[in-house]
Amino acid sequence: MSSLKRELISSWPGLLLVLALALFSRFLHGFISQPVLSKSISEILIAVLLGLLVGNLARMNESFRAGAKFALHRLLRLGIILLGLRLSLQDVAATGLTALVLVVICISAALGMAWLAGRLFRVPPKLAALIGVGTAICGNTAIVATAPVLQADEEEMGFAVATITLFGLLAVIFYPLIGHALGLSERAFGLWAGTAVNDTSQVVAVSAIYSPLSLDVATVVKLTRNTLMAPLILLFGWLSTRAFNRPMNGSAARFDWRKLIPGFVLGFLAMALVRTLGVAAGVLPQSLSQPGALQTAAAFLKTVDEISKFLILMALTGVGLHTSLASLRRLGLKPLLVGTSVALLLAALSLALILYSPLGA
Question: Is residue 1 in some structural domain?
């Protein structure tokens, strides 16, 4: 009997619980009729909160915990692989070199600040790295994609998701107010939202509040950030092999290429390459809503995209179920200080570059 089959047999009650909570979170999210509120309070946030509630108030036997763990690992990896079909390198090229440079500078600064603040506040390095990559790239998706490479546990992943979600919600409230107070142009605000707000849905919410042009600019810039997730996963895999798995005697860790390039990362890159080559060959659409001859292919890609999103929704439900609030309380407020430091630096640096350098022109 294969290990996958054994896992399914032992964890199916927990998987049914994960499925039910994920569907219920989507059902509850459907009651939020206000468009901006619907984008800022995502179904992922509801799923994590429901998982936390059930996992900490109800008695979870071994089969339920096994199901949450299966969703966290197996379903998460499959969702990440399918996520690659959303990315086309042609979209990145359309943003221009200046936008790409702006994104790279902001990502580098956010990751550096996360490392520095993590050491300053003595936060576990894997948790600090997850907060940094979640702030720098694309929020929850970057966290759940990077956590397996860093070999971060469920509690670290759950706290990072909660921290990033909190700052994303604050951005939805305050970014448009700051933009209007500073008199930012529609394009400048779109650049700012695209580089500094965490999650894709929150970027859409923030920029849509400001103007349709801001939404267009922010969406493309955010896609550029998302595309850089793959090379960063490889970088974090190398760093985790060198730093997080060092023997107790202080000698250098033995380099393991299998940990540097996990199978799901290769799958993610392969799907992104398929999308890019398909668009170049004219057999796959540039947009998932493209009409005409490629409408069938667009519908297929949209279906795969929805499957990927739901698998990640189930995985994050598993995060909530598997996260102990008592353990999170033991972590204290220090991770929030790391998140605050990184979020404030990213917002200030991005805005300064847009206003006072040629990158915002």
Answer: no
How would you classify residue 250: left for phi > 0, otherwise alpha for psi between -120 and 50, otherwise beta?
Answer: left
HSE-CB at 175 with a 13 A cutoff on CA atoms is: 38
Which DSSP category does 151 fall into? T
Reduced to 3 states (helix: H, G, I; strand: E, B; else coil), residue 250 is: coil
DSSP 359: G
In a domain, 268, yes or no: yes
Tokens, residue 303:
């279906």
Give 88-132 pLDDT, tens digit per residue.
666 555 555 667 788 889 888 888 888 898 888 888 888 888 888
In a domain, 137, yes or no: yes
pLDDT digits (tens, 9 = 90+) for 43-84: 877 887 888 888 888 877 778 888 888 887 788 788 878 877
Contact 164, 140 (CB under 8 A): yes
> What is the total count of domains within the chain?
1
* Enclosing domain of residue 234: 7-360
pLDDT, residue 14, reads: 86
* Beta-carbon-side half-sphere exposure of residue 293 (alpha carbons within 13 Å): 3
In a domain, 2, yes or no: no
Residue 54 tokens read as 């059930």
Give the C-alpha separation, 89 to 279, whole Å: 9
